[in-house]
């Protein structure tokens, strides 16, 4: 059995360097902390002070039982969710109307929207700065 705690806090200096939002209420520092316990490849992760938990495992080829999503699956889900949350903030800041993630933006404005979302999204930046090959495809469909 093992246990770990991870805490991630954006410092004021980091927040000033790359603003997530132009809304003053959203410029606050957002501390994040998770705690995990497990045996072998199976781990239960919780967020202190929150009612939710999740379980991670890995594929049999890596010694897991594939009984829960793998850390890689959670990483990609985190990237997707972070882009959507960040996109909602960016759209609000720029007066862009979003549908069910179909954007009502045209031409260069769409490209600027995508660029700004990927610049502000901390998970996108984590992937880009990690050295892995990062590719994204955004499609602007009519509402």
UniProtKB/TrEMBL annotation:
Cited Pfam families: OsmC
InterPro entries in alphabetical order: KH_dom-like_a/b (IPR015946), OsmC/Ohr_fam (IPR003718), OsmC/Ohr_hydroprdx_reductase (IPR052924), OsmC/Ohrsf (IPR036102)
Superkingdom in the source lineage: Eukaryota
Protein name: OsmC-like protein
Organism expressing this protein natively: Podospora pseudocomata
